[in-house]
Amino acid sequence: ALEPLDKALDDDLIVMVSHVPKVGLIAAHLSGLAHPPAFSTASACLVEVDGARGRARWMLDPTSLEPDRL
After folding, report:
1. CB contact at 8 A, 40 and 21
2. pLDDT in tens, the chain (70 residues)
């Protein structure tokens, strides 16, 4: 599931789409979170990856379309 990250260049933007619970596990793995973020249907999470480290920046609620900072 994470193979595209192996080939990504520094300025690449990669969008990954998945289903619960896998999407939460991927976000937690990439960002180093102890627990997966809570995803609902059609929500989104921005994870910025710099080298081997990632940081979850925000979650987007599909109802309000307002990002919540993490």
Report:
1. no
2. 677 777 877 778 878 788 889 989 988 888 888 998 888 889 999 888 877 778 888 999 889 999 999 8
CA separation, residue 20 to residues 11, 29, 62 (Å): 28, 14, 15
CB 64 within 8 A of CB 52: no
Please give, one letter per residue, the 3-state secondary structure of the chain: CCHHHHCCCCCCCCCCCCCCCHHHHHHHHHHCCCCCCCCCCCCEEEEEEECCEEEEEEEECCCCCCEEEC
